[in-house]
Amino acid sequence: MRRDKYIYIGLDLHKFQHTAVVLDCWFEKLGEMTFQIKHLFFQVY
Fold first, then answer.
1. Any residues with CB less than 8 A from the CB of 23 and at least 6 apart, and which?
2. Are 21 and 8 contacting, i.e. CB atoms less than 8 angstroms apart?
3. What are the extents of the domains in the chain?
């Protein structure tokens, strides 16, 4: 297995937003994306 052929994706999931981060094999950040959660499609309990 060659480490330089892989990327890693991390997810940070919260109630009102989710964040995804992409890292290369040396753990340098390649990108980040944050999503706001819309509760229109989910029932409130």
1. 7, 8, 9, 10, 29, 30
2. no
3. 3-38
